[in-house]
Structure formats: C-alpha cells, structure tokens
Amino acid sequence: MRSAGGRHGVTLAERIARRIEKRGPMPVAEYVEACLYDHDGGFYMRSGGGRAGGRSGHFLTAPEVGPLFGAVLARALDAWWAELGEPD
After folding, report:
1. Long-range contacts of 70-73 (CB under 8 A, 24+ apart)
2. Which of 22, 32, 40, 43 is 20 to 30 A from 3 via CA?
C-alpha cells in the first residue's frame, strides 16, 4: 500500500483500518482488491487514475513485448519439436 495519501491525505492503509474499525473483519478478497486496484493507493493504479500496467507501469505481459517475443517462442517450440523427432 502506497504511503502517499490519497483522498484528503489519508492513505489506503488508514482507510482500510477505519473500515475495519467501523464494520469489523474485512473479507480477504475485498482487502486484496483494495490493495491492488484502489484508485488512490492500489498497487496497479496510477496516481492520476487508470491502471499502471504496460510499458510505463509496474509490469509488462508477454503480448505487449511485440512480435519479437512470438518469434523467439516459435523458434524454441520448433527446436523442441525437432528434438522429439518431429512427431505428429
């Protein structure tokens, strides 16, 4: 959870703590969703809104790398297929 305050200078951790104080135990799924996707403090959210994935974010998925990834993967699969005697 980011330390920078989101809504009115209150951090996500503080908001979660307040929610637990008011309503009691928080389901794990709700906690994880808040930690990852909360608009003002979730790990995968940008400070200006929107997800923080992709080339400028915290992570990059294989398809976003471009055609080079597919070419490398195809070459490896072709080599493994050849090593196995080119089975049907």
Report:
1. none
2. 22
Q: Any idea where the domains of the chain sit in the sequence? A: 1-48, 53-88
Residues 29-77 have pLDDT tens digits of 999 999 988 988 888 776 555 555 555 566 667 666 778 888 899 999 9
Residue 21 token pair = 């104080």
- Name the strand (E) or helix (H) holding 30: helix 28-37
Distance between CA 9 and CA 14 in Å, rounded? 10
Average pLDDT over residues 1-12: 66
Burial 1-39 (b: 16+ CB within 10 A, else e): bbeeebeeeebbeebbeeeeeeeeeeeeeeeeebbeebe
Q: What is the pLDDT of residue 6?
A: 56
